[in-house]
Amino acid sequence: MVVLPTPPFPLAIPIDFNFVELLNFATRCYNLEWLSAIKNWILERDRPMVRLVGMFVALLSLSMASIAAEPEIVKYGDWTNVCNEGVNGLKQCTSTQVLTRQLETGQNVRVLQSTIVKLNDSDFVFQFVLPLGVDLRPGIAFQIDQGNQRSGQFFTCITSGCIVRFALNGEFATEVQNGATGQLVYRNANDQKPSALRVSLKGVTAAMNAL
Q1: Which of 60, 67, 124, 181 could form a disulfide with 168 if both were Cys (CB 3.0 to 4.6 A apart)?
Q2: In the chain, which residue ranges form alpha helices assigned H by DSSP?
Q3: Per the domain annotation, does 59 fall within a domain?
Q4: For a pLDDT cut of 70, what percent of the chain falls above it?
Q5: Mean per-residue pLDDT of the chain
Q6: Are residues 99 and 187 in the same domain?
Q7: Contacts by 54-59 with C-beta closer than 8 Å and gap 24+?
Q8: Total domain count, the chain
Q9: How confident is residue 107, by pLDDT bands cut at 50, 70 and 90?
Q10: Looking at residue 176, which CATH number applies to its domain?
Q11: Do 183 and 117 lie in a common domain?
């Protein structure tokens, strides 16, 4: 098995470095068909100097592919769309808004991450990640402007926080796109009274349309 270095590559690389496996890896991960042609050309010329040049081409190609695979980031109001190119060449995009709070130490900590993912032409998922330590039993309530509250239950908790997901389609999607502000109401485990976090909906329509 070949352990791939992360660019910038080390200056000292052994001559017997398995560049063919490296080219195979780059071809699979970055869907670059022209790498296959380079690999076949090198294999047909089994001479030390050609193989050394082939090693250099393999490393250079992987470095170029890594640069080409940098995520595309676009801001839409208070939402940020991040798109990555998948193995099949299709873009995989999410729209995210992160709310932070500054501690007395001056450190900023995340208190809420809101994410929208597109499933198909009409269906989205609205996901919220709250910090660990929330009371899971009552779930949460989400309200847009002065509209009715929608209740939701926690899906799971991971190391980065506890997750709530809503199906975002139909009437709810229209409310989100026409709204100005969302409010997420929850309760911490040791609190008697609920707390609320604000979710800005500025730019959310453009962000969803771009997914």
Answers
A1: 124
A2: 19-30, 34-43, 48-68, 170-178, 204-210
A3: yes
A4: 67
A5: 78
A6: yes
A7: 54/19, 55/13, 55/15, 55/17, 55/19, 57/19, 58/19, 58/20, 58/22, 58/23, 58/26, 59/9, 59/13, 59/19, 59/22
A8: 2
A9: confident
A10: 2.60.40.1880
A11: yes
